[in-house]
Specification:
single chain; 336 residues; alpha/beta; Rossmann fold; 2 domains; eight-stranded mixed sheet; 9 helices; 14 strands; 19% strand
Length: 336
């Protein structure tokens, strides 16, 4: 398509359930076993309706299950999207297909590293395109529609599944199989790609993103290593000490409740922090803030605010490309 009357959207495929080919129409659990995928061009051929409202350019960046996606892939994808916007001033937006297991992580990384106000929208599917009742096709149409919509600009990276537009910072996968799995527990979704073919928004996120982010990955080939240590009843310092001895660059503690954890666990975190390791305290509850309490402040910890442990990890990885100063990293946790 070359029509100048239609917004030009780049459709970038990375794989995931939205592209997997199952053996039968009732295969909802084993479709990834053969590792067989549709290409992004084959996926687009299944939804010719999008050509009525967008000029779509396709490219296959990856074709993997999202459990295979790594931080190196995040870097490459961010660089590629930035290159698209540099090379094509007339591009309306970028739509990305992705597996749902790590979709929220890729989306948040892009939210911090894409240097454009133009829409970048990420989608996936909970049922493969070969399955009865698949959500793959409507999600793909919605993704391109949202990426083409001028009202999507300036809102940071977005996700769209189940007709619901979500902020990359806030969204998380909450169910292993249900179509409505992607939710933003604290704040709710931003808007709809709705049945009347409209893209409608009702709110926007207030945290800095994209062009207002201080992170530039153009010359970065490898991100600092940050790991997550989960807390639970009886958790001791074994995992934390092992991570410190392995030489990781930072630790995110997925704490209990408001961030506190069993005394041996906290003692190991304190030891790591005292040795100069950046330690971020997040909550494993799924929603709510971790606050700068007297104890956390005195022990030198950085708090994640309401970022999930996975997203606090991503932000710490990027923060460590800029600084190792705890006060500066804390500022970033409260900014993004």
């Amino acid at each position: 398509m070359t029509s100048g009357s239609k917004p030009r959207v780049y459709l970038v495929g990375t794989g995931g359930s939205i592209s997997f080919v199952g053996r039968t129409r009732t295969d909802y659990t084993n479709y990834s076993y053969d590792r067989k995928h549709l290409t992004i061009d084959e996926m687009l051929e299944r939804v010719p309706e999008v050509l009525e409202f967008a000029d779509v350019r396709t490219e296959q960046f990856l074709n993997l299950g999202s459990t295979d996606v790594t931080p190196e892939h995040w870097l490459g994808l961010a660089k590629r999207i930035n290159q698209i916007f540099r090379d094509d001033a007339d591009a309306a937006g970028v739509a990305v297909t992705h597996g749902t297991a790590t979709l929220e992580e890729t989306a948040y990384f892009l939210n911090l590293t894409v240097k454009s106000r133009k829409p970048v929208v990420v989608t996936g599917a909970m049922r493969p395109p070969t399955g009865l009742g698949t959500d793959s096709e409507v999600n793909l149409i919605d993704c391109i529609r949202v990426a083409a919509a001028p009202q999507s600009a300036g809102r940071g990276v977005l996700t769209i599944l189940n007709n619901q537009i979500q902020a990359a910072r806030d969204v998380t996968k909450t169910n292993s199989y249900r179509l409505e799995t992607f939710q933003a527990p604290d704040f709710g979704f931003l808007g709809y790609a709705d049945s009347d073919e409209s893209v409608v928004f009702y709110r926007r996120t207030d945290r800095a993103h994209t062009v207002d982010s201080e992170f530039d990955v153009a010359d970065i080939d490898q991100l600092p290593r940050v790991d997550i240590a989960p807390a639970y009843a009886g958790a001791d310092g074994l995992v934390i000490k092992a991570l410190a001895q392995a030489g990781v660059d930072g630790i995110v503690a997925a704490g209990l409740g408001s961030g506190g954890s069993p005394p041996p666990f906290m003692a190991a975190l304190k030891e790591a922090s005292d040795a100069g390791m950046p330690v971020v305290i997040a909550t494993g509850t799924g929603s709510g803030r971790v606050m700068q309490t007297r104890r956390f402040t005195e022990d030198g910890y950085i708090v994640a605010d309401n970022l999930t442990p996975k997203k606090a990890r991503i932000l710490l990885m990027l923060a460590l490309t800029v600084t190792k100063e705890p006060a500066e990293i804390q500022r970033m946790m409260l900014t993004y």
